[in-house]
Amino acid sequence: MKTIGFIGLGTMGLPMAANLLRKQYQVMYYNRTPGKADELARLGGEEAASPLEAAKRSDVIVTMISNDAAVEEVYYGKDGIIAGLKPGMAVIDSSTISPALARRLGQDIADAFCDFLDAPVTGSSPAARDGTLLFMVGGDRETVDAQQDLLLAMGREVIYMGTSGSGAAAKLAHNAIVGINAAGLVEGMAIAAKAGIDASSFLRVVQGGGAASKQADLKGRKIIEQDFSVQFSLALMLKDLKLSSVLSDGLGVPTPMLEASKSLFQTGAAAGHGEEDLAALAKVYEQWIGGRIGGLRAPEAAAKPASPTAEPSGVERRRQTRVSLEIPLMMSVYQWEQAGAFAGQSVEGTLRDVSEDGLQISSTFPLEKDMFVVLHFKQEAGLPPMTARIIRIERSNNQFHYGCMLSGLALYQRLQLKEYIERHAGD
């Protein structure tokens, strides 16, 4: 029986390695974080001191690692896999990584006279435990056939995608759909909850209708029960959506739904939910709708308008009383010159007012309509530079008042700006 070097014992890797041991494979395992391998030791596995040792003492290497940087470290770093390869070995990476890195691994491993497959999986931790993962595989077809029994010891199906990097590309296209579906499920459940509809009843409608999806089956009850134990973390979902975005940009494919869902998961990560299950995106929507999606509130309370005596938020209070904001900022102003060059300078300004999609800024510096400026808030704000277009100009004494439309600002950045302004409006 082949000896399998298994590297990466996270949410997916640990049950995958355990299934190999149960199928009587000899497994030498390694994990960058110690203390995760007690189960494998009980099943008869042997721990390696490094990826290098695992490579030297195995016939096949399988890796299941979190991201591109970690994969590079395990393969190319000190005591990495590449240095331990022996001619004729097979290397299988089941991580979700960029196709470019998969192709690079394929070439470097081929240069060592070994075979490489990029074989990411679909199916979260329950499928990894049950051995029902689906492998989408890129690489040489003969190598896929030679390693099919090994892959089927961890999964239910192996689908050949094409040459090296094709498995990685298929996984990113697949996970773009997963992210979009998950965001759509949460958004629909939030609409229903705000309308006073029982969440469990609504989930039955979703699962029995045209909105049925794997995400509804996997995440619907988790959202209702506030169970955010990790099957697939929000941070990893965001990582995959970012990789999908880079891939689609390189291919020239417009992806408005991908970008919208990526922005939503960025909002969830910025709110501190990255290490929870991706279903924790529901917490962001619960904050927006002012209540639980799980329906702990009575239906009539969900639709009941806010009490007229309720304390308004900072922004609402500012709008009601028209309290003037006095938030200092800097503006980078760029002007085109001849031969395609441009010159720039920074000028002081003050944020005076804010709307859903724009700002009012005052300055003593004269600007022109339709000019683009880059806004820089104080470092304490924790806000990125923001590009705005001047759409309106009013003059009062020596002050210019500029109505500015924000341009290309992601949803999570708009929320950061809103929170920063609320803090000042509430002072």
UniProtKB/TrEMBL annotation:
Signal peptide: none
One GO MF term attached to the UniProt entry: cyclic-di-GMP binding
Domain 6-phosphogluconate dehydrogenase NADP-binding: 3-162
Superkingdom: Bacteria
One Pfam family of this chain: NAD_binding_11
Sequence segments annotated as region (Disordered): 300-319
All copies of domain 3-hydroxyisobutyrate dehydrogenase-like NAD-binding, residue ranges: 165-285
GO biological process per UniProt: organic acid catabolic process
InterPro entries from the UniProt entry: 3-OH-isobutyrate_DH-rel_CS, 6-PGluconate_DH-like_C_sf, 6PGD_dom2, 6PGDH_NADP-bd, HIBADH-like_NADP-bd, NAD(P)-bd_dom_sf, PilZ_domain
SUPFAM superfamilies: 6-phosphogluconate dehydrogenase C-terminal domain-like, NAD(P)-binding Rossmann-fold domains, PilZ domain-like
Domain PilZ: 316-422
PROSITE patterns membership: 3_HYDROXYISOBUT_DH
UniProt family annotation: Belongs to the HIBADH-related family.
Name of protein: NAD-binding protein
